[in-house]
Amino acid sequence: MGGKPEEEWVSLPFCRGLMADRTNRACSRPTKSNYGVLHSLGLLALIVTIACGDGSLPAADEPTPGVSLQTPSVTPGRLRFFVERVLDGETIEIAGGTRILYIGVKVPEVEPQECFGLEAQQRNRQLVEGQWIEIEKDTSELDLSYGYLLRYVYLNGEMINEILIREGFGRASIQAPDVRFQARLLEAEEEARQSKRGVWGACPAS
């Protein structure tokens, strides 16, 4: 996977509580240098909540950075979150700035731009941006390259990872130990390839 774009300014929902001064001026936005610290705090809170909690909301008077918009999931083994924005065809950002990388799918990059990268980003945005999703863990907690959560993502019961592959916006990319849905994702890729959907018809063979 190519390099992910890094924004000079990043807005976090809990920023005001951390950074606003005593004159109640507008909350400062963290730069690249301190974004990593704030993001790590929110990510740590999220992982601890998932690993140790019951999926319930924090008490109203005890907000937790990174999980402020978490609600109990109706599906056993999953948690429900609100998608703040889509970064590319395989990466999203939920409340608090925590980022999630889809398991088992490799889409073309936006930066540097690759064939069908913008189309994959737009499709992912159409599917999940501004939506409540459910996330499900396989074996790994984090992507070691970027520190993002690794998850299967669902909307209305349908797996987004699989949809993107089946519609030809990405290829199946199975990496142990996260192989729970290997057969399902490979089947979706074969269907897209045979039908020459998306990257299989629009992009030169790599």
Annotation field: number of helices = 6
CATH topology grouping: OB fold (Dihydrolipoamide Acetyltransferase, E2P)
How are helices and strands ordered from N to C? HHEEEEHEEEHEHH
Class per helix and strand makeup: alpha+beta
Shape: globular
Just give the CATH class: Mainly Beta
Largest beta-sheet characterization: 5 strands, mixed, barrel
Compute the number of structural domains.
Answer: 1
Give the neighbour order of strands across the main sheet.
1-2-3-6-5
Number of strands: 8
Helix content: 25-40%
Description:
The protein has 206 residues and is of the alpha+beta class. It has a single domain, classed as OB fold (Dihydrolipoamide Acetyltransferase, E2P) (Beta Barrel), CATH 2.40.50. It is 30% helix and 17% strand. Strand 2 and strand 3 form a beta hairpin. Helix 4 runs parallel beside helix 5. The longest helix is centred in the first third of the chain and has 21 residues. About 25% of the residues have low confidence.
Structure summarized in a few sentences:
The chain has 206 residues and is of the alpha+beta class.
Mind sketching the topology for me?
Layout: H1 15-19, H2 32-52, E1 79-86, E2 91-94, E3 99-102, E4 105-106, H3 117-128, E5 132-136, E6 149-155, E7 158-159, H4 160-166, E8 171-172, H5 182-194, H6 199-202
Parallel strand pairs: 3-6
Antiparallel strand pairs: 1-2, 1-5, 2-3, 4-8, 5-6, 6-7
Helix pairs in contact: 4-5
